[in-house]
Amino acid sequence: MQRRLQWGVLGASTIAKNAVMPAIQQSERGEVLALASRSLEKAKAVAEELNIARVYGSYDELIADPDIEAVYVPLPNHLHKEWTIKAAEAGKHVLCEKPAALTAEESMEMIEACRKHGVLFAEAIMYRYHPKHRRVEEIIASGEIGRVRAIHGNFTCNSADDKDNVRFKAEMGGGSLFDLGVYPISAARMYLGQEPEAVTVNAFFSEEHGGVDMMASGLVEFPGSVSLTFDCGLWASGRAEMEILGTEGRIELPKVFGWENSDIPPQIIIHLDSVSREERVSVSNSYVLQAEAFADAVLDGKPLPFTPENTINNMRVIEACLQSARTRQRIVLDSPNAK
Predict the structure, then answer these.
(1) In 3-state terms, what secondary structure has residue 266?
(2) Is the dihedral of CA 166, 172, 175, 177 positive or negative?
(3) How many CA atoms, within 13 angstroms, populate the side-chain half-sphere of residue 297?
(4) Which pLDDT score, from 0 to 100, does residue 282 have?
């Protein structure tokens, strides 16, 4: 039997409880050994439900547990830096929920701390681990749709009635760009294999929701005169789609970022003139695939599919998008870090 990576989780958030912890437990190489929450009673209830052996009433106690090898950080965005660095200083590998930080500078500090203490760092943008995205990259590289001319992406939902949601607190890193814009922006960067040169974003900032951006629409300029147009929103009808437009055809990706089961619609639709075809690559849980990749990196030394530099570069774009939205100006990006 393969050795399983021993995980500790800082916080019993919805994403941790409903997605990441079950996925680690379902994976072949991971086990959630401990859960910490500021509410010990909440931690105990979740731990009992998910069959987690150890429970702590503080994050420091979990990090001090010598049996914990890796920590998952699903805390509100403004706490990511603090607890990633504390985990690294304790010698724990870190999987940090997206967005990794509030700024590119913060993400650099987190990654430097992990390097200094000899632990791995990965940002939990789970959808990227699904093999359908490797298939999209193959189709683009094959030239089947010709030269890529434009990419369109969106990710919206309507959670506006939940006024106490941490996503609606600006000081905690709330807003649609941090929560959902990360997805189409990281996808375009992944498909093109390039870093953007400039961004222009228009956003709706809602005073009912702590002044955060509840809807944002943007233009992200890549080298070669290729652009991503995207929108993301927390107060709009729900959808999550990508389209890659080429000179000879286009790739359509319905429900591009979500969970998948046997009832999924086509994962990839390729349109070539009057002919279209559908492809289903695999029915896989992206959260499980993420957990397996992280365990392979820690236990076997396999390279992580997405580097820490990728995280820094993604934060650069998100940070520039927010700056553009607030100033109503086009923001030119500095030269990116190495991939």
Answers:
(1) coil
(2) negative
(3) 20
(4) 86
Kindly report the number of other CB atoms within 10 A of residue 196's CB atom: 26
The amino acid occupying position 252 is E
DSSP 303: P
Give 183's Cβ-side CA count (13 Å radius).
Answer: 23
Is 98 in the active site? yes
3-state secondary structure of 91: coil
User: For the segment 84-113, what is each residue's pLDDT rounded down to a tens digit?
Assistant: 999 999 999 999 999 999 999 999 999 999
Helix (H, G, I), strand (E, B) or coil at 207: helix
Residue 67's closest CA among 110, 33, 31?
Answer: 33
Q: Which residues contact 68 (CB under 8 A, 6 or more apart)?
A: 6, 7, 8, 33, 34, 62, 92
**Measuring CA to CA, how many Å separate 285 from each of 8, 27, 239, 257?**
21, 10, 19, 11
Proportion of the chain above pLDDT 70, given as a percent: 97
Beta-strand ranges (E) seen in the chain are 5-10, 30-36, 54-56, 70-73, 93-97, 121-124, 148-158, 198-206, 212-222, 226-233, 235-246, 250-254, 268-272, 275-279, 331-332
Choosing from 17, 81, 86, 98, which is the catalytic residue? 98
pTM across the whole model: 0.95
* Tokens 């030394």 -> residue: 301
Nearest by Cα to 169 from 218, 202, 105, 213: 213
